[in-house]
């Protein structure tokens, strides 16, 4: 094809996006590392260079280990549930049953509603004399401090994240299920396979790439949770529900210790980049055509 | 035949249960918001249907909280973010799909690399830069809105989505336009842009939803209540009405109505499953 554009044209088209990406992605990316070597805690207007002291402070801080552990629990609980439950629901919906659209709309609803409203709604369910404790009491147990007991607070918050994610991943699975050849199921049915063996032998192997994709994206978003914690627990009680992003926020904007917060941000950056790299290289090559 | 029906019955039971679990937190919030002062909202057993039914909590919270203001702020921010994303993503996606130039590979990988950078990890420098650029509501309302919009004005997902869309257009379209005397800008704006409308619609809808729900960034940069977007305003209800759950519930439900209407109107984009790639930054 003949070249109908001038030498400069491609650069001019790219320029506006490039300006935004440079100012709000690339410069901040490198600056995050730079900030982590500065001490803001003494004079916020004249930070001093302190080398790796923020990292030493971070790695000697018990809260850091608590936060990392909480984040690990978050991944360990939320990711398997979000990889499996939505798949199960997608398989049920995919059977050409009645009311599919209504089910999809209702289950997708939590995805589009503001996380702040969702967190408030759950805070109300979790109230000391709330409806969940009523159920717990009627089953003959003592009331649970859903958000006030360090034993339970983190799990109560994780439930909200799971509840809000199910519909999103279910729709991703539904799209993937369309690509499974129907003949395979028919062959299975002739062999007399039941629901479970049919899907374990046909569906799961066929959509393995999607399962892997859902695993990595739900892991990445679990690393980034903030609003649920901010609205429901503020990381408490006793740091029991504090995760990485909330800790960064707290150290930066409440303690104004930007250097320390940046060291924590670098840790987040490294972990998420590893997950993303796996995701892009293994599961999303086609999407970006690399 | 009998076996199939039996199996579907189980499917329906499970799907109905999950659907109820999905909406129950909202149902309970609505129920609370409609209960009058004479009704104990902590009553055991809990009452879903209010016995002292009233709209008073809605009018009460409406009088004390500037929902219209929050709504307008959210519209400005989400609208501005959508417009910029459409223009910038399309402009950047076009040369990446259709032109040969020096540095194309590097540009491509640089854009791809931004996918791996979570905003939450770089938000501190973004905050410092935003202040340095005076894009903050203490300067002026306009600057405040720009500060909310600009960090999200374009992203890699949008650029790749548009690149993909342009790749799908036959080259003859451009050739014909050039023969007709169009220059490169006209080819882009008048010939190609109308042809990628479906992708633009997808990008617009998902950018809108993302921007509408954004909470972390506005709660960092906003200093004036008059600039609050809906999520920040709703979170603020908790402080304003500390334990008045009737008002908090009514306010939360009120704030949800606009996005609910938007979702129901656009539901096929969300639940068809064709557009999963464009969601979530």
Q: What does the model show?
A:
The complex is a heterodimer of chains A (290) and B (281). In chain A, helix 3 runs parallel beside helix 7, helix 4 crosses helix 7 and helix 7 packs antiparallel against helix 10. In chain A, strand 1 and strand 2 form a beta hairpin. A two-stranded antiparallel sheet of chain A has the order 1-2. Chain A has 14 helices and two strands; from the N terminus they run αββααααααααααααα. With 290 residues, chain A is mainly α. The two termini of chain A are 24 Å apart. The longest helix of chain A has 32 residues. Chain A has two domains: 26 residues, no CATH class; 253 residues, MetI-like (MetI-like fold, Orthogonal Bundle), CATH 1.10.3720. By secondary structure, chain B is mainly α. Chain B has two domains: 53 residues, no CATH class; 218 residues, MetI-like (MetI-like fold, Orthogonal Bundle), CATH 1.10.3720.10. Chain B has 14 helices and no strands. The longest helix of chain B has 32 residues. Chain B is globular, with a radius of gyration of 24 Å. The C terminus of chain B is likely disordered. At the A-B interface, helix 1, helix 3, helix 4, helix 5 and helix 6 of A face helix 1, helix 3, helix 4, helix 5 and helix 8 of B.
Q: In angstroms, what separates the terminal alpha carbons of chain B? A: 45 Å
Basic shape of chain B: globular
The structural class of chain A is mainly alpha
Q: What's the CATH architecture name of the largest domain in chain A? A: Orthogonal Bundle
Q: What is the assigned CATH homologous superfamily of the largest domain in chain B?
A: MetI-like
CATH architectural category of the largest domain in chain B: Orthogonal Bundle
Strand tally of chain B is 0
The termini of chain A sit apart by: 24 Å
What structural class do helix, strand and pairing data of chain B support?
mainly alpha
CATH topology of the largest domain in chain B: MetI-like fold
Mean pLDDT of chain A: 91
Low-confidence stretches of chain B: 277-281
């Amino acid at each position: 094809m003949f070249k109908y554009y001038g030498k400069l044209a491609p650069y001019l088209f790219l320029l506006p996006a490039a300006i935004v990406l440079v100012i709000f992605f690339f410069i901040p990316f490198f600056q995050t590392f730079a900030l982590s070597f500065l001490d803001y805690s003494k004079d916020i207007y004249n930070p001093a260079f302190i080398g790796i002291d923020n990292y030493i402070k971070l790695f000697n801080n018990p809260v850091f280990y608590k936060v990392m552990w909480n984040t690990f629990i978050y991944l360990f609980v939320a990711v398997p549930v979000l990889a499996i439950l939505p798949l199960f629901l997608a398989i049920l919906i995919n059977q050409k049953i009645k009311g599919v659209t209504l089910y999809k709309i209702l289950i997708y609803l939590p995805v589009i509603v503001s996380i702040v409203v969702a967190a408030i709604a759950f805070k109300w369910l979790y109230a000391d004399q709330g409806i969940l404790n009523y159920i717990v009491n009627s089953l003959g147990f003592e009331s649970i401090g859903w958000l006030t007991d360090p034993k339970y607070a983190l799990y109560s918050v994780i439930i909200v994240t799971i509840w809000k994610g199910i519909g999103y991943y279910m729709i991703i699975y539904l799209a993937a299920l369309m690509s499974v050849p129907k003949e395979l199921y028919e062959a299975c049915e002739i062999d007399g396979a039941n629901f479970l063996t049919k899907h374990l032998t046909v569906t799961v192997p066929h959509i393995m790439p999607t399962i892997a994709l859902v695993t990595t994206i739900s892991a990445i978003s679990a690393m980034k949770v903030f609003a649920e914690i901010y609205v429901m627990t503020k990381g408490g009680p006793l740091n029991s529900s504090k995760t990485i992003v909330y800790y960064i926020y707290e150290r930066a904007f409440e303690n104004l210790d930007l250097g320390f917060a940046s060291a924590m941000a670098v840790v987040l950056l490294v972990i998420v980049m590893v997950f993303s790299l796996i995701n892009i290289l293994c599961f999303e090559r086609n999407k970006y055509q690399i | 035949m009998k076996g199939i029906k039996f199996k579907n019955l189980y499917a329906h039971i499970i799907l109905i249960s999950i659907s109820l679990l999905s909406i129950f937190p909202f149902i309970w919030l609505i129920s609370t918001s409609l209960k009058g002062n004479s009704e104990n909202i902590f009553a055991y057993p809990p009452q879903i249907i209010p016995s002292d039914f009233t709209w008073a909590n809605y009018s009460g919270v409406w009088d004390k909280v500037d929902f219209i203001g929050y709504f307008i702020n959210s519209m400005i921010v989400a609208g501005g973010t959508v417009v910029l994303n459409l223009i910038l993503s399309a402009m950047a996606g076009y040369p990446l799909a259709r032109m040969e130039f020096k540095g194309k590979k590097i540009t491509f990988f640089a854009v791809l690399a931004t996918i791996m950078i979570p905003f939450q990890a770089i938000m501190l420098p973004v905050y410092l830069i935003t202040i340095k650029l005076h894009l903050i509501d203490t300067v002026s309302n306009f600057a405040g809105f720009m500060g909310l919009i600009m960090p999200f004005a374009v992203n890699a997902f949008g650029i790749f989505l548009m690149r993909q869309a342009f790749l799908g257009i036959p080259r003859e379209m451009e050739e014909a336009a050039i023969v007709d005397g169009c220059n490169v800008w006209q080819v882009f704006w008048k010939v190609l842009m109308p042809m990628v409308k479906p992708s633009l619609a997808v990008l617009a809808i998902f950018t809108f939803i993302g921007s509408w729900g954004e909470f972390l960034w506005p709660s960092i940069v906003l200093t004036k209540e008059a600039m609050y977007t809906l999520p920040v305003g709703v979170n603020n209800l908790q402080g304003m009405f500390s334990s008045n759950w009737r008002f908090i519930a009514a306010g939360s439900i009120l704030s949800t109505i606009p996005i609910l209407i938007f979702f129901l109107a656009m539901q096929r984009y969300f639940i068809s499953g064709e557009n999963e790639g464009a969601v979530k930054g």
